[in-house]
Write a structure and sequence with these properties.
The protein is an alpha+beta fold. The protein has a domain at about 30-75 and about 90-105 and about 115-205. It has seven helices and eight strands; from the N terminus they run αααβαβαββαβββαβ. The protein has helices at about 20-30, 40-55, 60-70, 80-85, 120-125, 175-180, 215-220, and strands at about 70-75, 90-100, 130-140, 150-160, 190, 195, 215, 230. The protein has a four-stranded antiparallel beta sheet. A two-stranded antiparallel sheet has the order 5-6. It has a two-stranded antiparallel sheet with strand order 7-8. The longest helix is centred in the first third of the chain and has 18 residues, at about 40-55. It starts with 19 loop residues before the first helix and ends with a strand.
């Protein structure tokens, strides 16, 4: 006789109660598969997805590279007449790819040899920026020569937590705790000089909240105008 199939255990829905014991149990024993607060994670997903779109295949960087195309530069004085300088050399440049590395220790650090990854918790403690190195693969040729390739360093930019360039991507609550993060770290923000900063996707005035602005430009709009506006 074949064993009866058991239905997977359904998660207990959250209510408006405090659920103190349940929260305490989740704090003491973080889940090892997924977050216990999927609705909170869904609220942050638009921030993370907007950052991931920049470097994903077919994303904004790829479209920008396609829009830039190939640029041609000529040597010599650009204001001189052709008969004065003769034939000029042509330098053609195009961007093949732009990629952002994950946050790692700089080459000047010779202490860590095996694990050189930098995690957000360390950046908070050191008042550092959680950032990665931005590099571009350029192709260029002179006149009718062959295309040559070179990788250029474009500096460093902050990395959004839990994005596809973050070390915490795909971490379970249990793994987050081992990385010295909160068990329900949602991400969607940056760490700059050790301070957590977020980019607001939409800015609107609070409902039924009067605001008064004092600006000198209001007075210059015409007769009867003053510095105050509401």
């Amino acid at each position: 006789m074949a064993p009866a199939k058991t239905k997977p255990a359904q998660e207990k829905p959250w209510t408006t109660e405090y659920d103190t014991l349940r929260r305490q149990d989740l704090f003491s024993n973080p889940p090892k598969d997924k977050t216990a607060y999927p609705m909170l994670a869904a609220a942050v997903d638009p921030h993370i997805n907007s950052f991931n779109t920049i470097f994903s295949p077919g994303g904004q960087i790829e479209l920008a590279i396609r829009d830039i195309g190939t640029k041609v530069f000529l040597d010599g004085n650009p204001y001189a007449q052709p008969e004065e300088i003769g034939q000029r050399n042509r330098l053609a440049v195009r961007i093949q790819d732009v990629f952002l590395d994950k946050s790692v220790l700089p080459p000047s650090n010779k202490v860590a040899l095996k694990n050189r990854n930098i995690y957000p918790a360390e950046c908070r403690e050191r008042h550092a920026t959680y950032r990665g190195k931005l590099r571009a693969r350029l192709e260029f040729k002179v006149n009718n020569g062959d295309w040559r390739e070179e990788v250029c360093d474009l500096g460093s930019i902050p990395i959004m937590l839990r994005s596809n360039r973050c070390h915490l991507e795909g971490y379970s609550p249990d793994q987050l705790v081992k990385a010295k993060e909160e068990s329900e770290e949602l991400g969607g923000y940056f760490i700059v000089n050790g301070i957590e900063k977020i980019i607001r996707m939409l800015q609107v005035n609070r409902r039924n909240y009067p605001m008064a602005i004092k600006r000198g430009a209001f007075k210059n709009r015409g007769p009867g105008k003053n510095l105050q506006a509401s």
